Amino acid sequence: MTPDTPEARPDHGGNLDSACVQFGGTRDDWIDLSTGINPVAYSLGDIPYRSWTDLPDQKAQDALLTAARKFWSVPDTLDIVATHGASALIAAIPGIFLGKSVQISGPTYNEHALAFRGAGWDVKDAASGQDAKVLVHPNNPDGRLWSPQDLNCRQLVIDESFADCSPSDSLLHSMNGDDHITLKSFGKFWGLAGIRLGFAISSVKTIARLRMRLGPWSVSGPALSIGATALADQDWADQTRARLTQDAKRLDECLSKLGAQSVGGTTLFRLYDTQDAKSLQTQLAQHKIWSRVFPYNSRWLRLGLPAPADWPRLEALTNE
Prior knowledge:
Elements: H1 16-23, E1 31-32, H2 50-53, H3 58-72, E2 79-83, H4 86-92, E3 101-104, H5 111-118, E4 122-124, E5 132-136, E6 155-159, E7 180-185, H6 186-189, E8 198-202, H7 204-214, H8 221-231, H9 234-256, E9 261-265, E10 269-273, H10 277-285, E11 289-290, E12 292-294, E13 297-304, H11 311-318
């Protein structure tokens, strides 16, 4: 198996093209619930024309980072860098850490293990003197939350890609080492995954090493403009959290009628236990509703939240 074969690629949601091939229809026919992206995206508003035509300038970058610092209450002692998605940071971090063994407790988001293995690291599930550690917080797909006591490694990554749903659970302010890094993903909570925007927060020296790997202009001009505006809109964030909480409960009620029991997740995605996840995925797919199954657990099915206009199709199915 070579690294670029389909079998070697990590398993992800969002593979709607595969659903179309298997079950028919076009992308517009489908409700894609296979990811954990907010279906009610932040409104783009007016994007300055020069954001498209000019190289991103320092003023725009500073505005984005200032808004990010305020939104996440980043301490003055820590630095922050933005780039084209949290995935770019996940890929870069193994190259700035030192050692050969990393603890990544699974099941969890698989890009971390892929990145460390690609950099020559040995990935272990259990702790036994590892040189580095990765915590996905809340965890994907089960929503597990870690504690400050788990931050017990000198080199540490805390992936908080889904933490903006419940900011009080963040471990950002519990970091206690120069090589502790918290990752933030903009696209999921704000529903704008396509603009590719992510952040790393750590010590000044660690962020400096990351900046060297990311290079200049790692965030597009439009993403700088959109991100700065959205991060400053606290009212939208508060209202969104309230809506997501209500919709997550509504989704649990729908799936319970199909015999699926909620066993975890966040308010952006829900994890269900069912007798045969693949069978339930097929049942939903026959109504052009795409969900996520996992190769390591035949009982788990994960769904994101429907957009407001998509609830009737799902609820009609569960009321049959």
